Amino acid sequence: MNLTGLGVVFAGGAGVPALRGALASGVPPAAVPYGREGVPALAVPAAALAGNPLLAPARRADRFCKLAMAAALEAWEGCPADPARVGIILATAFGPHATVFRFVNDMLDFGDAKASPTIFSQSVHAAAASMIASAAKIRGPVLNLADLALPFEEALALAGCWLEEGRCDAVLAGAADELSDVLAHVVRRFWGDRFVPGEGAAFFRLERTGGARLALGCEVAPGAALRLVNEGGLGADVPVECDAAGAEAPPGALTPFWGSTRLGAAFYLAAAEVMRRDGRLLPGGAPLTDGRIEVLSACGLRRRVIALGE
Amino acid sequence: MDNRESELAEIRQKLKMLLVDNLNLQDVTVEQIQDDAPLFGGAIGLDSLDAVEIVVILQRHFGVEIKDMDVGRRVFQSVSSLSEYIYEKTRA
Amino acid sequence: MRERIAITGLGVVSAAGADAASSLATLRAAARPAWVPCPVADLPVAMPMFAAAGGFPAIDRTFHLAREAALQALRDAGLEAPPRGFRLGVCLGTTVACQLNDIDFYRAYRTCGQPALGAAERFAAGGLSERVARELGAEGPVLTVVNACSSGSDALGVAISWLRCGLCDAVVAGGADELSAIPASGFFALGVTSPEPCRPFDRDRQGLNLGEGAGMLVLERASSAGRRGRPVSLVAAGFGAAADGYHLTAPHPEGLGLELAVRAALADAGIGPEAIDFVNAHGTATRENDRIEGGVLARVFGPQARVVSTKGHTGHTLGAAGGIEAVFTALALREGWAPASVGFENRDEAIPFAPLTAAAPVLRDYALSTSLAFGGNNAAVVLGRQGVSS
Fold first, then answer.
1. Ordered DSSP codes for C200-248
2. Which of A19, A23, A80, C247 sits in a 20 to 30 Å window from C301, CA-based?
3. Close Cβ partners of A53 (under 8 Å, ≥ 6 residues apart)
4. Are residues A206 and A221 in the same domain?
5. For residue A126, what is the nearest residue in chain C, using CA coordinates?
6. Which domains are delineated in chain C?
7. Given this model, what pLDDT does residue A247 score?
8. pLDDT for C162-182, tens place per residue?
9. A52 and A199: one domain?
């Protein structure tokens, strides 16, 4: 399949220019004390969402929806495909958990019979992709998936199937996760200070032609111009094999730009696309020879390689 | 009569604030909501999800129950009609 | 020529029965299983709910339901010990098991800020499909669908895509969900639950009942089934899905997305509406769903459409519904009769047909199962039988 559009929102702001700016500067966004316990985290700044023109018609979008929408609608802009033939695949690890807890708050505060129906509707995992479909007037298949290991990698593989089958002419495939007090607390209890959790979303427009070639596999291939290793995030596995066959950064080298997350592959792929478009390695700015950029992920025996470019 | 009118005005004001906050009405201020303007299918454009949310607002903030959405449909016409229903159920 | 996708195994547990055989008996008898007044939330009216037959623990219940139905399906397919190198994928849908939604955990967090971590540890064990895949030693792709009420059907669609693209040899696909306080409270707040056993398509229907269970199918490339010496008598012939793009909870007033999904599924199967013997509808018994879905089915299949909702036996099992209903549809094709639509008594004039009121022989080779979800996703699966002269 081919990558023809990109959208991203992360601790450094909303939009591909914000990601490029952060990577080019070499300075990751600063982690700030988050929530009730002041756990250092890489939260998306309020300004990235408030007043974001892509989010204008979304009265009922909760924060999780807004993160996903901001990235998806940026990747969608200018897509020529017929909306009836466009699909959406949204991967997440934790889903709209902040909203789930808001609903449970209502149940505990007001009783099981008097909780807010609006908050309930937002707490259902399917809400975010549905709002993207409404905003973009997309009518094709819409799939939300939630897993803790390789969720974005599986979303990409499925997008490839939908295009190969002829089920869609374009697919918006992406990943989104949000922070919450509870999640920050659990991260601290499980792992102490080892990880700085992040939040955000990255979306990719995929079509059969145009842009840059994107391929999925389980093995690295020789001759990659650049190999980026997604260290897994929040206690997941580091890929064992990282033999150098081109310029390479150590596992997790770019993670400080967006935070520890199970969706790391999505952000690494976004960074890879930014570098490919610029023709240079970021940070640093050394010219990137033409060729394949590989993003590696692993979980147990499952290994995934996303290859971008020829 | 004076008493009734001032209580109704109070209810209307409280209701408008609750609607703007709880329904997350982004382009509408409390001042812009006219007492008799249709809430559903008018400029404010509330929908079926807002209707069930209003049922919860009535329960929590006024102690008024709507057991039947047919009653709801009649009573939710405008801020005025809602306020009068609340007044009837709580003060009369 | 695209390879056929065989259905080589079925597994199901719900209020209708602890397995396929007992479920068939319930469907045959058009029997209403016993219901319980909402056992998971404190509601002012006794809302009927349908608990799964068989003993399943309260903790981690959805995983246990899923595991049971998956094992039944694998046994049915002769895949309890798959051959070496066999690539088995797992694609399950759920709405409850994907959330860190343990109320005791959250209450403790709210009060003292240091909750016991059991619930978080269970959540951290992975998505439902991941946990079942680990249990089964499955080495193919793994994906948990969280598409609300269409999750089970969408999971079948994913499995079909994976198999057509050769990502694996077979997939355990379907859905599972347990009765849970959050959806109980949420659906009640939306005003769509019924204080009596549900009556799909009936003039006086008052809403849905929640239910729980799991429905799993083993979908397998026909060539793989052949290599294993399994006969191919049932197939997953086609799948279609489409978004309403309309509203967070209300379906599109003309059922736009459902009609697109149904027509896409028929086209995917390479058949026309006349080849469909019956439709296992979503049929939740809410006023909106049945009216809109009824309109779409009448438009596509005509007012003579043969439609059944099996939610009168199971309640609305949310993420499990698409899986359970696909299993019931497959069983009906295999046994040669479509079940009566339990809970229906009087025709609603706003719906152009009445559902089946008695079990009817299956005369054509294909059947359709539909699911409509919160947020407007719609899914339709075409199942077929092979090697039967109609």
1. TTBTT---B-EE-EEEEEEEEEHHHHHHTT----EEEEEEEEEE--S-S
2. C247
3. none
4. no
5. C147
6. 5-385 (3.40.47.10)
7. 47
8. 999 999 999 999 999 999 999
9. yes
> ipTM value of the model?
0.97
- Please tell me the distance from the alpha carbon of residue A22 to that of residue A48, in angstroms, as a whole number: 14
Nearest to C358 by CA among C60, C78, C55, C27: C27
Distance CA C49, CA C193 (A): 10
Give the integer Cα–Cα distance in Å for A107 and B60: 12
Q: Are residues A61 and A201 in the same domain?
A: yes
Say which DSSP state C358 is in.
Answer: S
Q: Residue C56 CB: number of other CB atoms within 10 A? A: 22
| Closest of C99, C21, C7, C93 to residue C53, by C-alpha | C21
Residue A180 pLDDT greater than 60, yes or no: yes
Position C267 scores a pLDDT of 97
Which candidate in A114, A122, A123 is best for mutational testing of the B interface (most B CBs within 10 A)? A114
Rounded to whole angstroms, the Cα distance separating A231 from A194 reads 13
Q: What are phi and psi of A135, to 5 degrees?
A: -65, -40
Encode pLDDT of C59-80 as tens digits: 999 999 999 999 999 999 999 9
Q: Which residues in chain C are closer than 8 Å to B52, comparing Cβ atoms? A: 189-191
pLDDT above 90: percentage of residues in chain A: 79
Is there a catalytic annotation at residue C282?
Answer: yes
Q: Count H helices, E strands: chain A?
A: 9, 13
Q: Among C282, C286, C374, which residue's Cα sits nearest to residue C322?
A: C282
Question: Does residue B64 sit in helix, strand or coil?
Answer: coil
Task: Give the minimum alpha-carbon distance from C354 to chain A in angstroms, rounded to a whole number.
Answer: 30
Residues C13 and A23: their CA atoms lie apart, in Å, by: 52
Please state the separation of Cα C75 from the chain's center in Å: 20
CATH number at residue B24: 1.10.1200.10
Residue of chain C minimizing CA distance to A114: C189
Q: Which residues of C touch A188 (CB under 8 A)?
A: none
- The sign of the torsion formed by the CA atoms of C51, C324, C190, C279 equals negative
User: Is-catalytic flag, C316?
Assistant: yes
pTM passes above 0.90: yes
Query: What is the pLDDT at residue C111?
Result: 95
User: Cβ distance A268 to A254 under 8 Å?
Assistant: yes
Q: Which of residues 20-59 of A touch B (CB under 8 A)?
A: 59
Judged by CB atoms closer than 8 Å, whether chains meet at B53 and A115 is answered as no
pLDDT-wise least confident of A55-59, A171-175, C117-121, C293-297: A55-59
Average pLDDT value for chain C: 95
A8 and A87 share a domain?
Answer: yes
Rounded Cα–Cα distance for residues C65 and C52 (Å): 9
The boundaries of the domain holding residue A121 are: 2-211
Q: What is the pLDDT of residues A209-246, one digit of tens each?
A: 999 999 999 888 888 888 898 888 998 877 766 554 44
